[in-house]
Amino acid sequence: MAFRAIEWLDDSDTLQLIDQKVLPQQVRYLELNTTAEIARAIHDMTVRGAPAIGVAAAFGILQAARSFADAPAEEMQSALQQADAVLRASRPTAVNLFWALDRMKAVWADATDPANLPAALHREALAIEEDDIAVNRAISAEALKILPQKVTFFHHCNTGSLATVDLGTALGIIRSAHEAGHEVFAYLDETRPRLQGAKLSSFELLEFGVPHAIVVDGASAHIMRTQDVDIAVVGCDRVAANGDVANKIGTYNLALAAADNDVPFYVAAPMSTIDFATPDGDAIEIEERDSAEVTEINGHAIAPPDAPAFNPAFDVTPNRLIAGIITEYGIARPPFTDSLAAMRTAQQNALKEDV
Ligand SMILES: CSC[C@@H](O)[C@@H](O)C(=O)COP(=O)(O)O
Hints:
Layout: E1 6-9, E2 14-18, E3 29-32, H1 35-43, H2 50-67, H3 73-88, H4 95-108, H5 117-144, E4 150-155, H6 170-179, E5 183-189, H7 196-207, E6 212-215, H8 220-226, E7 231-234, E8 238-240, E9 245-248, H9 251-260, E10 265-268, E11 274-275, H10 292-295, E12 296-297, E13 300-301, E14 314-317, E15 324-327, E16 330-332, H11 336-354
Parallel strand pairs: 4-5, 4-7, 5-6, 7-10, 8-11, 10-15
Antiparallel strand pairs: 1-2, 2-3, 8-9, 9-14, 12-13, 15-16
This protein binds 5-S-methyl-1-O-phosphono-5-thio-D-ribulose.
5-S-methyl-1-O-phosphono-5-thio-D-ribulose (MRU) binds near residues 50, 51 and 236.
């Protein structure tokens, strides 16, 4: 891979991020040295995509621990509590952020020997990073089992290498199908307002030589009605226990268009994105972002000055529109409450076997 969105540089306690705000015009790397800088980078979407922000947050906790390595135990605990709070407040919808912070907290919260904390947190952050790579590969392997040889995809937002540590989820499936020799074509929703499809997913698919076309978001129903689209596949920021899926705004529209055109609609979801504590989509907090994202493109006004705008960053696709949720433990099918619970049991059994 010619680029890596997120990388921990251990010698300098630095988190290196590709600046996703300026892609694809510039490939600029930023080096972040404090938890506050990482929280800001998550909030302003320098780093984005549910799995990537979870990994970034884990390294934000590590940075706090390393800066207080020589401090008394209580100071270290209070620094970690503060870092945890700042990172939790950076974005509300993607559950991976909270999942990764919970994993880190399980290491630091009841630590009996604070001197060992930086090393233990380093191991945990690296494990979260490595797990993401393995999980993404397993998701692609599950998806490949159901794809025809010639396959035309519809995709929303960016769910590839830039949104994760390595391969990606939904876009990773598209890339893996291409690399496995399928005859692949992908329609990419441009994904207003921030244009992750046009800017980031196209950048990635060009890098990997995958045939595709960017389309405006409003074109999806027309394209599904007039072209042979085999499958729509998207990522997710949070899946409720009943299979309702929160993902980038416009996902619900795409699912409706797919339903009306008999195109199966799939969601690629690491188990870390499934929130069993949230019963259904109504209970998911939807981030609302600055209205300037709607009234401007790349800082240039496109609406009248002072035009009001409303900018929910995510929507919830009801489970009834979803054909399958592709996890690293297999493909959950309706009724999702049961099949997702079965996936969780499979995961718990696998984890027991590993111990
Ligand atoms: C594997 S990424 C999954 C989701 O996080 C992705 O589909 C998405 O909605 C990203 O939103 P973003 O606001 O760009 O962070």
